[in-house]
UniProtKB/TrEMBL annotation:
It comes from Steroidobacter agaridevorans. It comes from the Bacteria. GO terms for molecular function: phosphorelay sensor kinase activity. This is Histidine kinase domain-containing protein. The keyword Transmembrane applies.
Length: 618
């Protein structure tokens, strides 16, 4: 009799543990399914396990309470436990569908088959319940439902092997689950069959096999939840499962060996009560902490206050503002006086400070946050000192970040200044190459005219003075307006027309440009010089040179055309000094934003030079 009571008590304790575990997993899975939509196979699995364990727990508990197996309440408990077999096939179908995909034909067909199996179980369940007065444990229904479950599971495994090529290859976790599931299934199915078919077994062995066969909910729940369920709560499952099992095991041992509770209903009540106390201990401790902190001591939520301060100063980039925010948080939370004192300033230190928190950073002056009493000041206990330490840590981290950001900004400013100085030096070097080159060529032209045509030489000298007056006025400025450049081009072409006479014809057009667009100073002069010297001068009859400006979206297009001899062979490999300076100045001013192109005109006569400069900025 004592052995029977011990067996029933262990069954009741185990079933209560399984019910609590399945309920916990079911609630977690419910939150996941609510976000993804629709109950999953895992959710149905936990429901099946909860129904089974709850029904068996009620059955054994009622038996321990003194009720006969023929009592209607015991029969109802049996009926509740075995009703889980109705949902079992559908749960297996949904699990397979989750593995193969919701749109898989195999999974959908098998789900329909599991629906038929569930209807079969429902029919057998109703017929046995009606014909045998709900005495399901002693009927043939447990064995029949086991065979149905084995057939459904075997078909599911075959379909999974056929359809798994459509999904990602199995990882180490799935392989581990397969081996563990196979061993567990062999153990529990074998135990269940031996319990049902082998009445000749010794009583002790029969009881042990019955425990293994009936308590499938706990091992299968943990195995499936940890290895196959959504990974974002698998760690929680493992922790809560171990916590629950450890608490129940300790409570069972304490009831048997510490409290010496006699076998039977008292063991179940004592064990579950002790386990409930251990499981609720963290909640009880939190409740007591809340009672002391919020009700008795009227403390603020220091953790929330520290986190709020950290979040509020995340975008503070000034040390003074950071210190002011820290003082405000400390004063308002602890209702104390507070101030910042430099670490090395001994004279400014307060002798009666309640607490002092140091804030130290690398290669920077340190500070101390001194807290002093006020008429509303709180007594600084462990929680208050912890809050001050947390505030000091937050200020130190943010101060390090501010110093780092300041150093990065200073470094960036220095780099930009060096780049600007380098660019200005390059531009000045290019300008010193352009100006003497222009002067040298013009003076040669004047020298040629002094002997034969002195009046023209005089006019050319005047034009040259106007050109150099413009060049000198733009010496410190790399950009000029389009109108100024076109005016300079007109003076320069007047000089060349004095030399070439009717052989040089000129066309200047501003097009749809406004005239105030910014262009590089002295940009057109080397282009005009090359067009005249290399394109028109070799021709006896001379030719025409045209300068045109036009807006094209965000760019200003400058085009210099001539109908001269065209480009010489190999020009691209060895351009002249003037054109090379033009391209280098454009790159220095605009980087990759400007364009320079030179080629033959569309009609095949002469040369066309195109410059595109952005209208906005450099």
């Amino acid at each position: 009799m004592e052995n029977e009571l011990t067996y029933a008590a262990l069954q009741a304790i185990g079933m209560a543990t399984g019910a609590a575990l399945c309920a916990s997993l079911g609630l977690m899975q419910f939150r996941v399914d609510r976000a993804t939509g629709g109950p999953s196979g895992y959710q149905l699995l936990w429901v099946v396990g909860f129904i089974w364990t709850l029904g068996r727990f009620l059955r054994y508990t009622l038996q321990l309470a003194g009720l006969d197996e023929e009592a209607s309440s015991v029969r109802l408990a049996e009926t509740l436990a075995w009703s889980c077999t109705i949902l079992g096939p559908i749960a297996i179908g949904r699990l397979l569908q989750a593995r193969l995909g919701m749109t898989s034909r195999l999974a959908r067909a098998f789900l329909g088959f599991t629906g038929v199996a569930s209807i079969l179980n429902l029919s057998l369940f109703a017929w046995v319940g009606a014909t045998q007065a709900l005495e399901l444990d002693a009927s043939w229904y447990p064995e029949a439902s086991l065979y149905v479950a084995l057939i459904v599971t075997a078909i599911a495994l075959m379909l999974y092997r056929v359809g798994r090529h459509e999904i990602a290859p199995a990882g180490s976790r799935s392989r581990w689950f397969g081996r563990g599931a196979f061993l567990l299934a062999v153990l529990q199915v074998g135990a269940a069959l031996l319990t049902l078919r082998s009445s000749w077994l010794p009583t002790g062995l029969h009881a042990a096999l019955s425990l293994i066969g009936e308590h499938w909910a706990i091992p299968w729940s943990i195995l499936i939840a940890v290895s196959l369920a959504q990974t974002h709560y698998a760690d929680v499952v493992l922790k809560r499962s171990l916590w629950l099992l450890t608490s129940v095991s300790i409570a069972t041992l304490a009831s048997a060996f510490v409290f010496n509770v006699p076998p039977g209903f008292a063991v179940v009540v004592t064990t579950l009560g002790c386990a409930a106390l251990m499981l609720s201990a963290p909640f009880l401790i939190r409740a007591l902490n809340f009672l002391v902190d919020r009700v008795y001591l009227n403390r603020a939520d220091y953790l929330a206050a520290a986190n709020l301060f950290e979040e509020s100063v995340r975008r503070v980039y000034d040390q003074e503002k950071l210190f002011d925010a820290a003082l405000l948080a400390v004063r308002s939370t602890l209702r104390v006086g507070a101030r910042w004192v430099p670490t090395g300033d001994v004279a400014a230190a307060t002798t009666n400070a309640l607490a002092s928190i140091s804030v130290e950073t690398d290669n920077r002056p340190g500070y101390r946050l001194e807290v002093s009493a006020s008429h509303q000041a709180r007594t600084l206990m462990a929680e208050e000192l912890g809050f001050l330490n947390a505030m000091g840590a937050h200020v130190t981290r943010r101060l390090d970040a501010i110093y780092f950001e300041q150093e990065q900004r200073a470094l960036h400013v220095r780099e930009e200044r060096l780049k600007r100085l380098l660019t200005e030096a390059e531009l000045k070097a290019l300008r010193t190459q352009v100006d003497p080159h222009f002067l040298f060529n013009t003076l040669n032209t004047i020298a040629d005219l002094i002997g034969s045509r002195p009046q023209q030489a005089e006019r050319m000298t005047e034009r040259l003075a106007e050109c150099f007056r413009y060049a000198l006025s733009r010496h410190a400025r790399e950009l000029s307006t389009l109108d100024d450049e076109l005016e300079f081009a007109r003076h320069y072409l007047d000089i060349e027309q004095e030399r070439f006479g009717d052989r040089l014809r000129v066309q200047l057009s501003r097009g749809d440009a406004c005239g105030n667009e910014s262009v590089p100073s002295l940009l057109l002069q080397p282009l005009l010089e090359n067009a005249i010297r290399h394109g028109l001068a070799p021709l006896r009859e001379g030719g025409c040179i045209s300068v045109a400006a036009k807006r094209e979206g965000d760019y200003l297009r400058l085009q210099v055309d001539d109908d001269g001899v065209g480009l010489r062979p190999g020009f691209q490999d060895k351009p002249g000094v003037g054109l090379r300076n033009v391209t280098e100045r454009l790159h220095a001013l605009y980087a990759q934003a400007a364009r320079f192109a030179i080629g033959s005109r569309p009609d095949g006569r002469g040369t066309s030079v195109t410059v595109l400069v952005p209208l906005h900025g450099n």
